[in-house]
Write a structure and sequence with these properties.
single chain; 349 residues; alpha/beta; Heat Shock Protein 90; 2 domains; 5-stranded antiparallel β-sheet; 36% helix; binds adenosine-5'-diphosphate
Length: 349
Amino acid sequence: MIRISHLSKVYPGGVTALRDISLEVRPGEVISVIGPSGCGKSTLVRCIEGLEAPSAGTIETGSSRLGMVFQQFNVFPHLSVLDNVTLGPVKLRGIPREEAEQRGMELLRTVGLAEKARRMPDSLSGGQKQRVGIARCLSMDPDVLLFDEPTSALDQTMKTEVFGVISELAKQGMTMVIVTHELEFARKVSTRVLFMHDGEICEEGTPEQVFDHPQKTLTQIFIRNRRSLIFQVDSREYDLYKFNADIEWFCQRNHLGKKYFTLELITEELLTHFLPFSGPIHFRIYLNDEKKLAMEIEQESCSSPIVDSPEADEISLMILQGLCASIRERQEGASRFLDIVVNDVYNQD
Ligand code: ADP
């Protein structure tokens, strides 16, 4: 449906956003495009949609009609929900209003918003607006739908609503290219995943291949880091509120309920009583292979024991040991590492 050959894009000013991309999109494929910010994902779909002109290479779409859903909902605020969905068909495709309204109501049913047909977009939530945006795209009968981070402006519940609609479209066989940061969603919905890095497609494959058995080091690092919470502490004046908020968000994203509480206690205990601040401290919080909440702490420029230290205060040590199922220390180069598995006992909701 789409054939891209040797596509490159250099923006005025000299940023190279895409380097020699070749890609085919076949009927019924659901392709997720993942990768770090700035790697060119958005530029790729914008080039496909024709919003950006390629600097080199070609994009053939044949007779395919394309529709694009943006991060910022593409709804007209001055038109009712139904009028948003009938505008294109009536004005651009010359379809009689009555017919367009009938089809519009069908599309609103598809996205779960038939009840809101007469409402103005202002009265809708972000998730509902995004679903109207999707219905609006569908009203032009596209053969391929392109999504540019459709849920990044939404909170968790609203994300789920929009994912629900996209999954339903996937089931119906809609061909889609989806730029997303939501790896779990990408895994569930995609037939193929592209991992981009620095303007190139670094690795591609089925969700199982890319997420569970990535071949390239860059992909492995990206997947590992996306599943982790990384936080760096440079001094005793670190931003405690930001760290705790990140921990809570990580636990929420991973459906870990109230487990953030134990994590917060452990990090505070370590930062207050154990870590020597001999250099930057790196925290990586993740789920280990047994799906237990775990943490790796790297204290730079340190070669003496941290928790095993003879000077460790006995009460603090007891508290820490109670909060952790296990604590291991190791030395790697000039850094001291702590590997901690969080104790589940305190983690019941
Ligand atoms: P992603 O979607 O992966 O975050 P983008 O495609 O938005 O990446 O951006 C790729 C690169 O191109 C980045 O370095 C970005 O700063 C640059 N870029 C994006 N849009 C423009 C633009 N309109 N003008 C100049 N540079 C741009």
